[in-house]
Amino acid sequence: MKKILITGALGQIGSELTGKLREIYGRDNVIATDIRKTDSEAAANGPFEILDVMDAKSMGEIASKYHVDTIMHMAALLSATAETKPVFAWNLNMGGLMNALETARELNCQFFTPSSIGAFGPSTPKDNTPQDTIQRPTTMYGVNKVAGELLADYYFHRFGVDTRGVRFPGLISYVTPPGGGTTDYAVEIYYEAIKNGTYTSYIDKGTYMDMMYMPDALDAIIDLMEADSAKLIHRNAFNVTAMSFDPEELAAEIKKHIPGFEMIYHVDPVRQTIADSWPNSIDASAASAEWGFKAKYDMSSMTADMLDKLRTKLK
Ligand code: AKB
């Protein structure tokens, strides 16, 4: 990775990934792109271009202009939004991915795009979900993610594009809030705990999902991209996780820092149905064996850091 193009660079992952990659590979070697410009750091502190990922021609022109050798395709609609706009989700998630893969093929780039725990469905084994298992998701997002994993495999086998990817769990961060995901409650809860001392959860107690703190997610992307290609067997869809909890356990952890914190439940049937179709916990042993994946944060160290950083941010 010497010159990297990121799509969706102002989104939840992209905004922090851009900063971290600029620290490592140099400010001018990371080209941030997104459909709109904001005054965020990722847009201000280095090269930035407006790019709609559905526009294949512009994507190719920007990638050629900067002579990129790596594409990190992060632009996508998340699970809950995709369920409300399934046709648009298909067009954006699959069309954007296809354009990014084609650009990578034409310019001989290394390629990363994230899959998700959403690539699993109700018939997948729910606990310690294996790396290789049944994938029959019942959401548009899940259908997109499985198709995306297969498409990235196809570009590797058919055209030799060095495609790589992970199945991310819910990602928790104090920098850029997620939007339209099912796991977003596990971010919102921290903001509301600090601001109001209470949170109304749209996910029911007893619903376990995998989660990861953003610093571990960024390390996972970079470590996988830097890994020896010859050692990668599951190159486009590594299960990765750091922890699994339900809303009650997260609330109890927050109470250790904010004793008066109160959790209320008002379940959203759409997002609850999506969560119920996903695993309780996934097995990340293939990622550990093939490229040394290991998360540093658990629920307790993440919660301490989140609350500390958010208290400063929200002052
Ligand atoms: C979502 O909830 O849609 C995402 C994901 C787990 O892929 N955070």
Itemize the secondary structure elements and their pairings.
Elements: E1 4-7, H1 12-25, E2 30-34, H2 41-44, E3 48-50, H3 56-65, E4 70-73, H4 79-84, H5 86-107, E5 110-112, E6 115-116, H6 140-159, E7 163-164, E8 166-168, E9 170-172, H7 185-196, E10 198-201, E11 209-213, H8 214-226, E12 238-239, E13 243-245, H9 247-255, E14 262-265, H10 269-277, H11 285-291, H12 299-313
Parallel strand pairs: 1-2, 1-4, 2-3, 4-5, 5-7, 6-8, 8-12, 9-11, 10-14
Antiparallel strand pairs: 11-13
This protein binds 2-amino-3-ketobutyric acid (AKB).
What do you see in this structure?
The protein is α/β, with parallel strands linked by helices and 315 residues long. It has 2 domains: 194 residues, Rossmann fold; 95 residues, UDP-galactose 4-epimerase, domain 1. It contains 12 helices and 14 strands. The strands form 4 sheets. It has a 6-stranded parallel beta sheet. It has a 3-stranded parallel beta sheet with strand order 6-8-12. Strands 9-11-13 form a 3-stranded mixed beta sheet. Helix 1 crosses helix 8 and helix 7 runs parallel beside helix 9. It is globular. 48% of the residues are buried. Bound molecules: 2-amino-3-ketobutyric acid. The site of 2-amino-3-ketobutyric acid has 13 residues, from loops.
